[in-house]
Amino acid sequence: MSDILCVYYSRTGRTKQTIEEIGDALGAEVVRIRDSVPRNGWVGWLRCGLDAMRRDTAPIEPFAPERPLGNYRLVIIGTPVWAGRCSSVVRSFLKTYGKAMYSTAYVVTRGSEGKFEEIYQQMDLYTAEPHKLAVSLRPKSVGHHFWQEDFIRQVRSYMAKM
After folding, report:
1. Comparing C-alpha atoms, which of 135, 137, 9, 160 is closest to residue 73?
2. Alpha-carbon gap, residue 158 to 81, rounded angstroms
3. Are 105 and 77 within 8 A, CB to CB?
4. Are 140 and 59 contacting, i.e. CB atoms less than 8 angstroms apart?
5. What pLDDT does residue 60 have?
6. Closest Cα to residue 119, out of 91, 99, 151?
7. pLDDT band at 50 (very low <50, low <70, confident <90, very high)
8. 54 class by beta-carbon count within 10 Å (0-12 exposed, 13-18 middle, 19+ buried)
9. Which residue has the higher pLDDT, 4 or 13?
10. Virtual torsion, Cα 134, 138, 139, 142, nearest 10 deg
11. Which of 25, 65, 68 is nearest to 155 (CA)?
């Protein structure tokens, strides 16, 4: 059983691939979160942006990690950037379960040049403690794998010190 849980939402598959690669490298448990809102196609894309700007959330569907969230030494939360904010699905997850997590790290995936590091503080509003580590990645960009590997090294170092 792993001491690390990677939980994520992905609409297009980019965040999914990134978190699965990180989870594999760390030997972590990986769990996908979802809500029941249709988010496919251009209408779904538009809905995602509007939900993020309004900070709207819908209840997430049940998910089943191997143990309670507070029993993991680190929970890595992966989210795409929607309209300069974390996805409404991840916001809903954090509103529901954030106070049960004491050691978190964030993986933010984005499609543009901006790093959107202010999202870390947005997410910290819902957790028991501020995040320990974070990375902003742009899948398919030149530096993506370098920064992803750097994040994995940081997680390993953090876990070794705990």
Report:
1. 160
2. 25
3. yes
4. no
5. 82
6. 91
7. low
8. exposed
9. 4
10. -110
11. 25
List CB contacts of 142: < 8 A, sequence separation 6 or more.
none
Show the tokens assigned to 135. 């990375």
- With 80 as the cut, is the pLDDT of residue 26 above it? yes
Structure tokens at 148: 């992803």
Phi and psi, residue 13, nearest 5°: 105, -15
Q: What is the pTM of this model?
A: 0.91
Measured over the CA atoms of residue 116, residue 121, residue 127 and residue 130, the dihedral's sign is positive
What percent of the chain is predicted at pLDDT more than 70? 94
User: HEC states along the chain?
Assistant: CCCEEEEECCCCCHHHHHHHHHHHHHCCEEEECCECCCCCHHHHHHHHHHHHHHCCCCCECCCCCCCCHHHCCEEEEEEEEECCEECHHHHHHHHHHHHHCCCEEEEEECCCCCCCCHHHHHHHCCCCCCCCEEEEECCCCCCHHHHHHHHHHHHHHHHHHC
